[in-house]
Amino acid sequence: MILHLQAKPNARRNELKPGPDGRWLVRLAAPPQDGQANAVLLAFLAEIFGVPKRDVLLLSGHTAPFKKVEVTGVSEEAGAAILARHGT
Known about the structure:
By secondary structure, this protein is α+β, with helices and mostly antiparallel strands. The protein has one domain (about 1-85): YggU-like (Conserved Hypothetical Protein Mth637, Chain: A), CATH 3.30.1200. The chain is built from two helices and five strands, in the order βββαββα. The chain has helices spanning about 35-50, 75-85; strands at about 1-10, 15-20, 25, 55-60, 65-70. It has a five-stranded mixed β-sheet, covered by helices on one side. Strand 4 and strand 5 form a beta hairpin.
């Protein structure tokens, strides 16, 4: 499953919700320095989707707010159901 996200670091807590432009908005409780926010992002997504951290890969956007992430081991249908729970 491929996710298109917009990451916002320095939040009070980690949060995933749909954004106004169709991307998912992820607020991260980590600073953007030294890849800390990316590490928190991958761990947070692994927790949400119930997969090991090694199954969540940052494909693009390493230093940008718009990111493309691949979650392996989750079907599109299962992933859509998980995202739907976060979209309410």
